[in-house]
């Protein structure tokens, strides 16, 4: 897997159970995963592929489906009825809430929050049939993914239309439809989603201290606006 600062490496071992690489010593994925943290829990009624990897301390709730070659980091929570697609990577301590749909090849960094009924799409031009009317097959289209940076949050029923990147610690409001990349720390709302402000690591909306300077009202952390290479405005830490 290619890693970026927005999508930290998710280790195959230690603390991850179920991949082909570790099955020789742990056995197939089951309802008990010994490890340094508390064992992972897979609730009755959940479907977890034997080719998936589930990190220690992770909980997979009823009716969730984890597909082949998906990797869940340590201490994640996968809610009731959620779907994690083939090969999807979910960073440690992330939460995917009830009935969220995370389609491959999505990548989620550490500490990501995916709210109830959120959808991360993977098809630029969705069709059930080809131009000649024949059913489309898996080989007839190329999946594209959504990347979600560390600490970002997507509110209930938000939709991300791939391919897009959600920046680190960004906040996507409930019901928003994201059709373009979201900068780090951005607060976006609406259809299509647009930036209306900035948020800090605490999730609180930042308050202005002066031109281009922002502060978290909860933690006192300070941030500065900067210009990205494409000319757009981004936010960065003001800490040394």
Task: Record keyword descriptors for this entry.
single chain, 1 helix, 7-stranded mixed sheet, globular, UDP N-Acetylglucosamine Acyltransferase, domain 1, Trans_hexapeptide_repeat, 9-stranded mixed sheet, mainly beta
Q: Name the CATH homologous superfamily.
A: Hexapeptide repeat proteins
Kindly report the oligomeric state of this protein. single chain
Structural domain count? 1
Supply the CATH architecture: 3 Solenoid
Q: What is the string of helix and strand elements?
A: EHEEEEEEEEEEEEEEEEEEEEEEEEEE
Strand content: 25-35%
The end-to-end distance, rounded to whole angstroms, is 31 Å
The rounded Rg comes to 19 Å
Task: Give start-end ranges of low-pLDDT stretches.
Answer: 1-36
How many beta-strand segments?
27
Counting helices, strands and paired strands, the structural category is mainly beta
Mind summarizing the main beta sheet?
Answer: 9 strands, mixed
Here the CATH topology equals UDP N-Acetylglucosamine Acyltransferase, domain 1
Given this structure, which CATH class is correct?
Answer: Mainly Beta
User: Count of helical segments?
Assistant: 1
Mean pLDDT: 85
Q: What sort of overall outline do the alpha carbons produce when their principal axes are compared?
A: globular
